[in-house]
Design brief:
single chain; 295 residues; alpha/beta; seven-stranded mixed barrel; 6 helices; 56% helix; rod-shaped; membrane; Mce/MlaD; Mammalian cell entry related domain protein
Length: 295
């Protein structure tokens, strides 16, 4: 009997530990005194049991159970357990907030101006606040619905554009243009790396030479040079004047036509003499190995 008694006690202890463990995993502390309240909502937005209850951002309790209010159709009663020291002033309300990921939490909006408090098992009014998702559903969804026909038209035009073979040709031409630009860029890089520095060196050398020439020109006596040029021009003018006059040999040579005629006549006589010499050389030259014969 002692063995069976021990086995029974162990089983009972295991059940108690299991019961307490399940409630602990749900967030229910079996050994901590708590106050029980009811909150009435028209829509709980999928609020699960064991959800935390917050007041001013601090957890003050959990959702113990949910049940439909058959005496008041269209309403749901949510049982919450709050810390025993947590007092809820009358005029407060509970708010369900839907977060971005769809989770729902309960916030107690306390009326701190009232010093009267709800008693245990009293019903606290509740309201639903859909938060960002509700605002998106209210404001954003109608705009999206109005935009859907335009989006269909845009997608249809886009599909038509993508199916046009000219787009593929344009992309091919753009690819070729990009390749040409790349080749041009490489040539420009080569030009900047090799030719441009050499050109700059040549320009620098030319500038240096021009600077030397400028320095040399700076040392030139321009007044003396111009005076010499003027003297030379005067001599040329005097020579030209003498050539135009007949009171000198050069002037006569340049301006007397008789001298020209005499020269022509002399040339003609010389030419006639040469022809006669060629035709009758014996008249002018006598040469014999044995002496001259008498004619």
């Amino acid at each position: 009997m002692k063995k069976e008694f021990k086995i029974g006690l162990a089983g009972i202890a295991a059940l108690i530990i299991l019961f307490c463990g399940i409630h602990y995993l749900k967030g229910i502390n079996m050994f901590k005194p708590e106050s029980y309240y009811l909150v009435e909502f028209e829509n709980v937005n999928g609020l699960p049991e064991s959800s935390p209850v917050f007041a001013n951002g601090f957890k003050v309790g959990i959702v113990r159970d949910l049940r439909y209010n058959y005496q008041k159709p269209g309403h749901v009663l949510v049982g919450i357990e709050l810390d025993q020291h947590m007092k809820v002033p009358k005029g407060s309300r509970a708010e369900l907030v839907t977060e971005m990921l769809g989770t729902v939490k309960m916030n107690l909006l306390l009326n701190l101006q009232n010093m009267e408090y709800y008693g245990e098992n009293d019903t606290i009014p509740g309201v639903a606040n859909n938060g960002i998702m509700g605002a998106a559903e209210k404001d954003l969804l109608p705009q999206i619905q109005r935009m859907l026909p335009k989006m269909d038209s845009i997608l249809g035009s886009l599909n038509k554009l993508l199916a046009d073979p000219s787009l593929a040709n344009t992309l091919h031409n753009a690819e070729q243009l990009t390749a040409s630009l790349n080749a041009t860029g490489r040539q420009l890089n080569k030009l900047m790396d090799t030719d441009v520095p050499q050109l700059l060196d040549n320009v620098n050398a030319t500038v240096s030479n021009l600077q030397v020439i400028s320095n040399n020109l700076k040392d030139v006596d321009y007044a003396s040079t111009i005076a010499k040029v003027d003297s030379t021009l005067a001599n040329v003018h005097l020579l030209t004047d003498k050539l135009n006059r007949k009171d000198n040999t050069l002037g006569l040579l340049m301006n007397d036509s008789s001298l020209y005629k005499n020269l022509n006549a002399t040339s003609a006589n010389a030419a006639s003499l040469l022809e006669d010499l060629k035709a009758h050389p014996k008249r002018y030259v006598h040469f014999s190995l044995f002496g001259k014969k008498d004619k």
